[in-house]
Design brief:
By secondary structure, the chain is an alpha/beta fold. The chain contains twelve helices and 21 strands. Strands 4, 14, 15, 16, 17, 18, 19, 20 and 21 form a nine-stranded mixed sheet that branches. Helix 2 (about 50-65) runs parallel beside helix 9 (about 270-280) and helix 5 packs across helix 6.
């Protein structure tokens, strides 16, 4: 076995893998009460597969950890924006964190409530602001002085008062990958902590804004609650300075970012992650808001793919599969690690493979150096793919995007049809 590949539990212990509802039955992998091989037979590959039970359990863990508190859990739509996923959370009473007008439209189409939507993001257009004002969203998380002025003007034109919070950059190191760190002073997100008080004063003077809260979000895939607790302390100090100036806040939005286990990480349980944060706010009257994404969907989903070719080489062996970097960009983008497991293991020689796709890029890989017993035609499951998988997919090389299904006990619900090539250029035109 390749030294870089951690020992994997035998198939009989598949529940030890990150996917909480993945297990072995009849010598193969099942998600809840559905065989993954049956999904591949019915829907083809590549296909994203999600577990409703895992989605609900993840959300309920947040609700239980916040029991007895004035709190709202707003699912970060960017993690996975499929209408089926959104509808599960809407039924559970979730709020939603959006970063575009398109995500707002998705939330509403899935049954989400506009008055439980917070609108984050550094580049909100005038059209998106108008759309959100007309829908009656809960709050705009404003990320710059220029956005503050634009929102006041747009709200005035619409004859409305825009509810706002400033997303404050607390300059706390989240100890995560630099591409998903968002709370340092060099990041594009939020307003500088030193500038926040003056910007709140400016917001209070603008006629078409209503200050309702404050927000911060320091990064993603957080495994240690200490940086978030540090950021919360800084934010709370600013909240009290605002109150002393007569600017009372209704809510404090602490963002999301709780990590998951992809390989050998040991993320804290939701209750343990929140405990030091909640201690900071003991006795406070403000409602607390959280924006989890990855921790709700990451390990509720996997990507099902089939081996097209095995290509041995002098220095590397390649398992060429029908999924690619256009389907799952995280490995190429972040060098992210996803476990790769055989759906129906069999006896044979174990080889170390580069698991790669058909795309014409050297960066088209899904996994490096994996010890697998595979043959052409075998099914593989790429685990922990529920977050930032389909939402970051593309049509590069004119490849139709994957199908998506949600497993609900022994039922399979198709929640996105596989694209066709004809659909990819249906809106394009040739020259006369």
């Amino acid at each position: 076995m390749n030294a870089s590949t951690p020992a994997r539990p035998p198939l009989s212990q598949a529940s030890h893998w990150p996917a909480p509802t993945l297990h072995a039955r009849e010598g193969a992998l099942w998600l809840e009460d559905v065989a993954l091989a049956d999904i591949a037979s019915r829907f083809g590959t590549p296909t994203y597969v999600y577990s409703r039970a895992a989605l609900e359990a993840a959300f309920n863990a947040w609700q239980q950890a916040l029991a007895g508190r004035r709190a709202l859990v707003c699912y970060a739509v960017k993690a996975n924006s499929n209408l089926g996923i959104l509808s599960v959370f809407a039924r559970l009473g979730a709020g939603f964190d959006i970063v575009s007008g398109g995500e707002l439209a998705r939330v509403l189409a899935a049954g989400g409530r506009a008055d439980q939507v917070v609108f984050s993001g550094v580049g909100k257009s005038r059209a998106e602001m108008r759309q959100a004002l007309e829908a009656g969203i809960r709050c705009f998380n404003v990320e710059s002085a220029a956005e503050l002025e634009r929102l006041d003007a747009v709200a005035g034109e619409a004859g409305r008062k825009a509810p706002i919070a400033l997303r404050v950059n607390p300059d706390v190191d989240p100890k995560t990958h630099p591409y998903i760190s968002t709370g340092l002073k060099g990041n594009k997100f939020g307003v500088a902590f030193a500038d926040a008080l003056a910007l709140y004063r400016r917001a209070a003077a603008l006629p078409n804004l209503r200050i309702t809260g404050i927000a911060c979000h320091i990064g993603s895939q957080l495994l240690d609650p200490a940086p978030m607790a540090e950021a919360a302390q800084k934010v709370l100090g600013l909240v009290d300075r605002l109150a002393a100036e007569g600017i009372a806040l209704e809510h404090i939005d602490l963002g999301g970012g709780l990590g998951i286990r992809y390989r050998d990480e040991t993320p804290p349980a939701v209750a343990d992650y929140l405990a030091p944060l909640l201690q900071v706010f003991t006795g406070r009257h403000e409602e607390l808001c959280f924006e989890p994404g990855r921790s709700l969907v990451g390990n509720a989903g996997l990507l099902l793919t089939r081996v097209e070719y095995l290509k041995p080489g002098e220095t590397k062996n390649f398992a060429i599969v029908d999924a690619a970097m256009n389907d799952l960009a995280r490995p190429a983008l972040y060098d992210a690690w996803h476990d790769v497991v055989a759906v129906t293991p069999h006896d044979g020689e174990e080889q170390v493979y580069e698991v790669v796709g058909p795309i014409c890029e050297s960066g088209d890989f899904l996994a490096h150096g994996r010890s697998l017993k595979v043959c052409e035609g075998d099914l593989l499951a790429i685990l922990s793919a529920g977050a930032y998988g389909m939402t970051m997919s593309s049509n590069y090389n004119t490849r139709p995007r994957a199908a998506e299904v949600i497993v609900d006990r022994d039922q399979i619900h198709p929640v996105r049809e596989r694209e066709t090539v004809a659909e990819l250029f249906a809106s394009e035109h040739t020259l006369p």
